[in-house]
Amino acid sequence: MSAIDKLIENTIRADVRAIGSYHVPDASGYIKLDAMENPYELPESLRRELGARLADAALNRYPVASYRTIKNKICAKLGVPAGYDVLLGNGSDELIAIMATAIARQDKRAVVMAPVPAFVMFSRSAQFAGADFVGVPVKADFSLDREAMLAAIEQHQPSLVFLAYPNNPTGNLFDAADMEAVIRALGDSGIAVVDEAYQPFAQKSFMGRLPDFPNLVVMRTLSKLGLAGIRLGYLSGNAELLAEFEKVRPPYNVNVLTQVAAEFALDHLEILDRQAESINAERSRLASELAALPGVEVFPSAANFISLRVPDADAVCARLHAEKVLIKNLSKMHKLLTNCIRVTVSTPEENTQFLTALKASL
Ligand SMILES: *Cc1c(COP(=O)(O)O)cnc(C)c1O
């Protein structure tokens, strides 16, 4: 064994050594429909104006620690209820990690729970924080299994339950009454995190319900709206609870360039909203064209992606890859997703290229 192998074995946790790294395929030269990115950019004139604002940012200074300006703008523009504040993250990925770290007590193993299949960072963050993750399978139609969730809550007493609304990778919105039953069952022994990463495409939200449930927090991101590159997530909920999470947040976790770019984008929110509208219109077209294909089962989506079942997901993905189209093969992720694939809704041109390549692969 080499010296570096010995060093790693002596220092790095066994559970970390055992896992693979988060794989992001090289996308150069490909039509990228695997990561739920908005295909549109800001108009040229706005990009120049943004450039000038970024040039004025004080790169020699740490960010203003309170982040008051950007927080006020988020609260005012994005439907945060009056009297509620937000916590900012370097993407919502960081907020997930912050919450998992905050609940991972040391006297006994804490439990993080989510319906599965789910966003992979829920379980990863629980593991890294030193908490146990319990996944509760959804039903075959991807709806929330209310009875199973309530039984699992009773049995495992989770400190944190993630409910993605709409869910990734399935794309559907869970029934709101089922979600409420979960939030109520947690009561004062568990925090319910409604992850609204896809809210710009869903038109449904729990943000306005914050005053109804002290144990509810609502998490969102600017990523899927069209700003994945700047990495900004936000979380709202009870002020005292946010103050506890705030202690775990690394100071200055949101950099000044992100702050300037986000404020600028929020000043021009109507442009991003219009982009989301055209993606939603394309989602309807893509869904109906997919549903007309023999052997394809399309699942309802309230997000900027569509999940579908094909006769042979490996063969379809290989063929699309050869045609330079990148999508996500969900087949091995969970047994409910056998032969399922996930495709980001993009521009009309790219969606048509995907459809053509898919037809050829069937
Ligand atoms: C994409 C996604 C996120 C991560 O968003 P970032 O803000 O880019 O870190 C969080 N939750 C779900 C369900 C997602 O699909």
Description:
With 362 residues, the protein is an alpha/beta fold. The chain has a domain at 3-43 and 270-361: Aspartate Aminotransferase, domain 1. The protein is built from 15 helices and 13 strands. It has a seven-stranded mixed sheet, with helices on both faces. α5 crosses α6, α5 crosses α11 (239-248) and α7 (146-156) packs parallel to α8. It is globular. The protein starts with a helix and ends with a helix. It binds pyridoxal-5'-phosphate. Residues 36, 91-93, 119, 164, 168, 195, 197, 221, 223, 228, 233 line the site of pyridoxal-5'-phosphate (PLP).
What's the number of extended β-strand segments? 13
Give the oligomeric state of the chains in this entry, treating copies of one chain as homo and distinct chains as hetero: single chain
Main sheet overview: 7 strands, mixed
Terminal CA distance: 48 Å
